[in-house]
Structure prediction request, 70 residues.
Amino acid sequence: MYGSNCKVDGYNVKPQKWYCPNCSELIIAYNDSSGKAKKRCCRCGVAMVKYQKTRHVNVIEVVEPEHYRA
Prediction:
């Protein structure tokens, strides 16, 4: 129905896909207006933020779940 990239309100709506570094679950998220994709893993509860630093470098920031904290 739609191509792989859709333009909505000037933003490039393309799903970001990566695997959770904690449990290897597939994560699919969409970029917000600041260009960051934010998602919490359904299996282990790790919160992640993925953004593009340079053309070939993507950064994934990982925050451990609440029940792991001492």
Observations:
- The CA atoms of residues 22 and 44 lie 7 Å apart.
